[in-house]
Structure to design on (323 residues):
Protein backbone atom coordinates (compact mmCIF):
# COMPACT_ATOMS: atom_id res chain seq x y z
CA UNK A 1 0.00 0.00 0.00
CA UNK A 2 1.24 3.46 -0.91
CA UNK A 3 2.11 5.16 2.38
CA UNK A 4 1.34 8.66 1.20
CA UNK A 5 -2.01 7.58 -0.18
CA UNK A 6 -2.73 5.86 3.15
CA UNK A 7 -1.87 8.99 5.12
CA UNK A 8 -4.07 11.13 2.85
CA UNK A 9 -7.03 8.75 3.29
CA UNK A 10 -8.04 10.37 6.58
CA UNK A 11 -7.44 7.19 8.57
CA UNK A 12 -5.14 9.01 11.00
CA UNK A 13 -7.76 11.68 11.72
CA UNK A 14 -10.37 8.97 12.15
CA UNK A 15 -8.13 7.20 14.69
CA UNK A 16 -7.22 10.40 16.53
CA UNK A 17 -10.88 11.39 16.93
CA UNK A 18 -11.68 7.87 18.16
CA UNK A 19 -14.17 6.99 15.42
CA UNK A 20 -12.11 4.41 13.51
CA UNK A 21 -13.58 0.90 13.29
CA UNK A 22 -11.86 -2.09 14.85
CA UNK A 23 -10.61 -3.21 11.42
CA UNK A 24 -9.23 0.25 10.65
CA UNK A 25 -7.47 0.33 14.02
CA UNK A 26 -5.88 -3.07 13.41
CA UNK A 27 -4.81 -2.00 9.94
CA UNK A 28 -3.30 1.20 11.34
CA UNK A 29 -1.36 -0.70 14.03
CA UNK A 30 -0.05 -3.04 11.33
CA UNK A 31 0.97 -0.10 9.13
CA UNK A 32 2.68 1.61 12.07
CA UNK A 33 4.86 -1.43 12.57
CA UNK A 34 5.75 -1.44 8.87
CA UNK A 35 6.21 2.33 8.61
CA UNK A 36 7.32 3.99 11.87
CA UNK A 37 7.05 7.33 10.05
CA UNK A 38 3.29 7.05 10.58
CA UNK A 39 3.83 7.73 14.29
CA UNK A 40 5.13 11.19 13.49
CA UNK A 41 2.06 11.81 11.31
CA UNK A 42 -0.29 10.74 14.12
CA UNK A 43 1.64 12.90 16.56
CA UNK A 44 1.40 15.90 14.23
CA UNK A 45 -2.40 15.56 13.94
CA UNK A 46 -2.78 15.14 17.71
CA UNK A 47 -0.58 18.18 18.35
CA UNK A 48 -2.61 20.30 15.96
CA UNK A 49 -5.87 19.35 17.66
CA UNK A 50 -4.27 19.78 21.09
CA UNK A 51 -3.13 23.29 20.24
CA UNK A 52 -6.61 24.32 19.12
CA UNK A 53 -8.30 22.54 22.04
CA UNK A 54 -6.06 24.36 24.55
CA UNK A 55 -6.78 27.69 22.87
CA UNK A 56 -10.54 27.06 22.87
CA UNK A 57 -10.77 25.52 26.32
CA UNK A 58 -13.82 26.10 28.52
CA UNK A 59 -13.21 26.41 32.25
CA UNK A 60 -15.29 24.20 34.50
CA UNK A 61 -16.49 25.38 37.91
CA UNK A 62 -13.51 26.22 40.17
CA UNK A 63 -14.86 23.84 42.84
CA UNK A 64 -14.46 20.90 40.47
CA UNK A 65 -10.70 20.64 40.93
CA UNK A 66 -11.05 20.10 44.66
CA UNK A 67 -13.82 17.55 44.10
CA UNK A 68 -11.77 15.62 41.56
CA UNK A 69 -8.65 15.53 43.73
CA UNK A 70 -10.64 14.52 46.78
CA UNK A 71 -11.98 11.63 44.76
CA UNK A 72 -8.53 10.71 43.46
CA UNK A 73 -6.94 10.87 46.89
CA UNK A 74 -9.77 8.92 48.41
CA UNK A 75 -9.28 6.25 45.75
CA UNK A 76 -5.53 6.26 46.28
CA UNK A 77 -5.67 5.87 50.03
CA UNK A 78 -4.49 3.24 50.85
CA UNK A 79 -2.41 2.61 47.72
CA UNK A 80 -3.43 -0.60 45.93
CA UNK A 81 -1.03 -3.36 47.06
CA UNK A 82 -0.46 -5.69 44.08
CA UNK A 83 -4.05 -5.72 42.88
CA UNK A 84 -5.41 -7.26 46.06
CA UNK A 85 -9.07 -6.26 45.80
CA UNK A 86 -9.99 -7.25 49.34
CA UNK A 87 -7.73 -4.64 50.87
CA UNK A 88 -9.55 -1.84 49.04
CA UNK A 89 -12.74 -2.41 51.04
CA UNK A 90 -13.43 -0.64 54.29
CA UNK A 91 -15.35 -2.71 56.77
CA UNK A 92 -17.90 -0.68 58.67
CA UNK A 93 -19.66 -1.97 61.78
CA UNK A 94 -23.25 -0.81 61.35
CA UNK A 95 -24.41 -2.18 64.71
CA UNK A 96 -26.09 0.30 67.06
CA UNK A 97 -23.81 1.75 69.72
CA UNK A 98 -26.36 2.03 72.54
CA UNK A 99 -24.47 -0.42 74.81
CA UNK A 100 -27.44 -2.78 74.76
CA UNK A 101 -26.02 -5.19 72.22
CA UNK A 102 -23.03 -7.49 72.22
CA UNK A 103 -21.34 -9.32 69.40
CA UNK A 104 -20.17 -12.90 69.96
CA UNK A 105 -18.46 -15.56 67.88
CA UNK A 106 -20.75 -17.87 65.89
CA UNK A 107 -19.54 -20.92 67.84
CA UNK A 108 -21.63 -19.62 70.75
CA UNK A 109 -24.77 -20.48 68.79
CA UNK A 110 -23.77 -24.17 68.72
CA UNK A 111 -22.89 -23.97 72.39
CA UNK A 112 -26.31 -22.54 73.26
CA UNK A 113 -28.15 -25.16 71.20
CA UNK A 114 -26.22 -28.03 72.88
CA UNK A 115 -26.78 -26.52 76.33
CA UNK A 116 -30.46 -26.16 75.60
CA UNK A 117 -30.81 -29.79 74.42
CA UNK A 118 -28.75 -31.05 77.39
CA UNK A 119 -30.94 -29.09 79.79
CA UNK A 120 -34.05 -30.70 78.25
CA UNK A 121 -32.50 -34.18 78.56
CA UNK A 122 -31.60 -33.50 82.19
CA UNK A 123 -35.09 -32.21 82.88
CA UNK A 124 -36.56 -35.36 81.35
CA UNK A 125 -34.38 -37.63 83.50
CA UNK A 126 -35.07 -35.54 86.59
CA UNK A 127 -38.82 -35.96 86.14
CA UNK A 128 -38.41 -39.61 85.17
CA UNK A 129 -36.33 -40.49 88.25
CA UNK A 130 -38.50 -38.36 90.49
CA UNK A 131 -41.54 -40.37 89.36
CA UNK A 132 -39.61 -43.64 89.77
CA UNK A 133 -38.51 -42.61 93.24
CA UNK A 134 -42.03 -41.68 94.16
CA UNK A 135 -43.27 -45.06 92.86
CA UNK A 136 -40.65 -46.95 94.84
CA UNK A 137 -41.47 -44.92 97.97
CA UNK A 138 -45.13 -45.77 97.57
CA UNK A 139 -44.27 -49.44 97.07
CA UNK A 140 -42.10 -49.35 100.18
CA UNK A 141 -44.90 -47.74 102.17
CA UNK A 142 -47.32 -50.35 100.91
CA UNK A 143 -44.87 -53.14 101.86
CA UNK A 144 -44.43 -51.64 105.32
CA UNK A 145 -48.16 -51.38 105.72
CA UNK A 146 -48.63 -54.98 104.57
CA UNK A 147 -45.92 -56.24 107.03
CA UNK A 148 -47.44 -54.22 109.82
CA UNK A 149 -50.90 -55.60 109.07
CA UNK A 150 -49.52 -59.16 108.92
CA UNK A 151 -47.80 -58.66 112.29
CA UNK A 152 -50.97 -57.28 113.84
CA UNK A 153 -53.01 -60.10 112.38
CA UNK A 154 -50.30 -62.64 113.53
CA UNK A 155 -50.38 -61.41 117.06
CA UNK B 1 13.62 20.56 18.07
CA UNK B 2 10.43 21.69 19.71
CA UNK B 3 8.83 18.35 18.96
CA UNK B 4 11.52 16.48 20.88
CA UNK B 5 11.40 18.94 23.79
CA UNK B 6 7.67 18.37 24.13
CA UNK B 7 8.23 14.66 23.86
CA UNK B 8 10.77 14.63 26.69
CA UNK B 9 8.47 16.72 28.85
CA UNK B 10 5.63 14.30 28.19
CA UNK B 11 7.88 11.35 29.00
CA UNK B 12 8.78 12.88 32.37
CA UNK B 13 5.16 13.76 33.09
CA UNK B 14 4.08 10.21 32.32
CA UNK B 15 6.77 8.73 34.56
CA UNK B 16 5.71 11.03 37.41
CA UNK B 17 2.05 10.16 36.89
CA UNK B 18 2.93 6.48 37.07
CA UNK B 19 4.70 7.20 40.35
CA UNK B 20 1.48 8.91 41.54
CA UNK B 21 3.08 12.32 42.11
CA UNK B 22 0.25 14.63 43.31
CA UNK B 23 1.91 17.84 42.03
CA UNK B 24 2.23 16.45 38.51
CA UNK B 25 -1.40 15.32 38.67
CA UNK B 26 -2.44 18.87 39.55
CA UNK B 27 -0.31 20.32 36.76
CA UNK B 28 -1.85 17.93 34.24
CA UNK B 29 -5.34 18.86 35.46
CA UNK B 30 -4.63 22.60 35.27
CA UNK B 31 -3.13 22.32 31.82
CA UNK B 32 -5.50 19.85 30.10
CA UNK B 33 -8.64 19.93 32.27
CA UNK B 34 -10.39 22.87 30.55
CA UNK B 35 -9.61 21.54 27.04
CA UNK B 36 -10.98 18.11 27.94
CA UNK B 37 -13.98 19.73 29.64
CA UNK B 38 -14.77 21.57 26.41
CA UNK B 39 -14.61 18.30 24.42
CA UNK B 40 -16.91 16.58 26.94
CA UNK B 41 -19.32 19.51 27.06
CA UNK B 42 -19.80 19.35 23.29
CA UNK B 43 -20.90 15.73 23.59
CA UNK B 44 -23.09 15.79 26.71
CA UNK B 45 -24.37 19.37 26.31
CA UNK B 46 -24.88 19.95 30.03
CA UNK B 47 -22.37 21.48 32.46
CA UNK B 48 -23.30 19.30 35.45
CA UNK B 49 -23.01 16.07 33.44
CA UNK B 50 -19.81 17.33 31.81
CA UNK B 51 -18.27 17.92 35.23
CA UNK B 52 -19.21 14.40 36.32
CA UNK B 53 -17.63 12.97 33.19
CA UNK B 54 -14.48 15.09 33.63
CA UNK B 55 -14.16 13.71 37.17
CA UNK B 56 -14.41 10.15 35.89
CA UNK B 57 -11.95 10.90 33.09
CA UNK B 58 -9.25 12.16 35.47
CA UNK B 59 -9.78 9.29 37.88
CA UNK B 60 -9.32 6.90 34.96
CA UNK B 61 -6.38 8.80 33.47
CA UNK B 62 -4.44 8.88 36.75
CA UNK B 63 -5.27 5.33 37.73
CA UNK B 64 -4.72 3.78 34.30
CA UNK B 65 -1.80 5.84 33.09
CA UNK B 66 -0.04 2.56 32.16
CA UNK B 67 -2.85 2.12 29.57
CA UNK B 68 -1.47 5.19 27.79
CA UNK B 69 2.06 3.88 27.86
CA UNK B 70 1.20 0.35 26.90
CA UNK B 71 -1.16 0.59 23.93
CA UNK B 72 0.84 2.48 21.32
CA UNK B 73 -0.61 5.93 22.00
CA UNK B 74 1.53 8.81 20.81
CA UNK B 75 0.71 12.01 22.72
CA UNK B 76 -0.74 12.21 26.22
CA UNK B 77 -3.40 14.68 25.11
CA UNK B 78 -4.40 12.46 22.17
CA UNK B 79 -5.04 9.57 24.55
CA UNK B 80 -6.86 11.71 27.13
CA UNK B 81 -8.97 13.26 24.37
CA UNK B 82 -10.11 9.82 23.19
CA UNK B 83 -10.81 8.68 26.76
CA UNK B 84 -12.81 11.88 27.42
CA UNK B 85 -14.90 11.58 24.25
CA UNK B 86 -15.53 7.87 24.82
CA UNK B 87 -16.70 8.42 28.41
CA UNK B 88 -18.81 11.44 27.40
CA UNK B 89 -20.52 9.42 24.65
CA UNK B 90 -21.17 6.65 27.19
CA UNK B 91 -22.71 9.14 29.63
CA UNK B 92 -24.88 10.61 26.85
CA UNK B 93 -26.05 7.11 25.80
CA UNK B 94 -27.04 6.35 29.39
CA UNK B 95 -29.18 9.46 29.71
CA UNK B 96 -30.92 10.00 26.37
CA UNK B 97 -32.73 7.79 23.88
CA UNK B 98 -33.27 9.72 20.67
CA UNK B 99 -30.07 9.61 18.57
CA UNK B 100 -31.22 12.36 16.21
CA UNK B 101 -32.38 14.59 19.04
CA UNK B 102 -30.19 17.25 20.57
CA UNK B 103 -28.65 18.06 17.19
CA UNK B 104 -28.78 21.77 17.64
CA UNK B 105 -26.90 24.04 15.28
CA UNK B 106 -23.93 24.65 17.52
CA UNK B 107 -22.00 27.86 17.53
CA UNK B 108 -18.58 28.01 15.90
CA UNK B 109 -16.95 28.04 19.31
CA UNK B 110 -14.54 25.20 18.68
CA UNK B 111 -12.68 23.23 16.05
CA UNK B 112 -15.01 20.29 15.54
CA UNK B 113 -18.15 22.41 15.53
CA UNK B 114 -16.61 24.77 13.00
CA UNK B 115 -15.68 21.80 10.86
CA UNK B 116 -19.08 20.16 11.27
CA UNK B 117 -20.93 23.36 10.33
CA UNK B 118 -18.98 23.51 7.08
CA UNK B 119 -20.13 20.06 5.97
CA UNK B 120 -23.13 19.42 3.68
CA UNK B 121 -26.29 18.34 5.56
CA UNK B 122 -25.98 14.56 5.19
CA UNK B 123 -22.26 14.51 5.97
CA UNK B 124 -22.91 16.67 9.00
CA UNK B 125 -25.50 14.21 10.27
CA UNK B 126 -23.17 11.25 9.68
CA UNK B 127 -20.30 12.99 11.48
CA UNK B 128 -22.64 13.97 14.30
CA UNK B 129 -23.92 10.40 14.78
CA UNK B 130 -20.43 8.89 14.63
CA UNK B 131 -18.48 11.38 16.72
CA UNK B 132 -20.97 12.97 19.10
CA UNK B 133 -23.24 9.95 19.48
CA UNK B 134 -20.57 7.27 19.11
CA UNK B 135 -22.82 5.08 16.97
CA UNK B 136 -21.35 2.23 14.90
CA UNK B 137 -21.57 2.59 11.10
CA UNK B 138 -24.34 -0.05 10.88
CA UNK B 139 -26.55 1.90 13.30
CA UNK B 140 -25.93 5.15 11.40
CA UNK B 141 -26.86 3.37 8.16
CA UNK B 142 -30.12 2.09 9.69
CA UNK B 143 -31.08 5.52 10.98
CA UNK B 144 -30.43 7.19 7.61
CA UNK B 145 -31.86 4.31 5.55
CA UNK B 146 -28.65 3.79 3.55
CA UNK B 147 -26.09 0.97 3.30
CA UNK B 148 -23.24 0.70 5.88
CA UNK B 149 -20.74 0.88 3.00
CA UNK B 150 -22.16 4.23 1.98
CA UNK B 151 -21.70 5.48 5.53
CA UNK B 152 -18.08 4.25 5.45
CA UNK B 153 -17.46 6.03 2.16
CA UNK B 154 -19.04 9.24 3.43
CA UNK B 155 -17.03 9.09 6.61
CA UNK B 156 -13.81 8.55 4.69
CA UNK B 157 -14.56 11.65 2.61
CA UNK B 158 -15.40 13.55 5.80
CA UNK B 159 -12.06 12.58 7.32
CA UNK B 160 -10.19 13.64 4.18
CA UNK B 161 -12.01 16.97 4.50
CA UNK B 162 -11.04 17.15 8.16
CA UNK B 163 -7.41 16.57 7.24
CA UNK B 164 -7.58 19.51 4.83
CA UNK B 165 -9.43 21.58 7.42
CA UNK B 166 -6.71 20.94 10.01
CA UNK B 167 -4.04 21.93 7.52
CA UNK B 168 -5.69 25.27 6.77
Amino acid sequence: MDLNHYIQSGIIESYVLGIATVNEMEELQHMRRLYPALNAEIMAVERRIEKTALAEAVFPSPYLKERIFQRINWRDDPPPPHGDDQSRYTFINIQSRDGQHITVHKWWRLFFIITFILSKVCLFFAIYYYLKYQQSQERKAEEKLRLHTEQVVGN
Amino acid sequence: MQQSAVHIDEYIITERLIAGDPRTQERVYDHYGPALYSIILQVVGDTRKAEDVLTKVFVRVFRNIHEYKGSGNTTLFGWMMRVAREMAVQEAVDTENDPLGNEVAKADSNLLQRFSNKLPAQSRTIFHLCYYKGLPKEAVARILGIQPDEVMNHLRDIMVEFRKFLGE
Observations:
- The helical segments of chain A are 3-8, 11-17, 22-34, 37-55, 63-76, 107-154.
- Chain A touches chain B through 43 residues (CB under 8 Å).
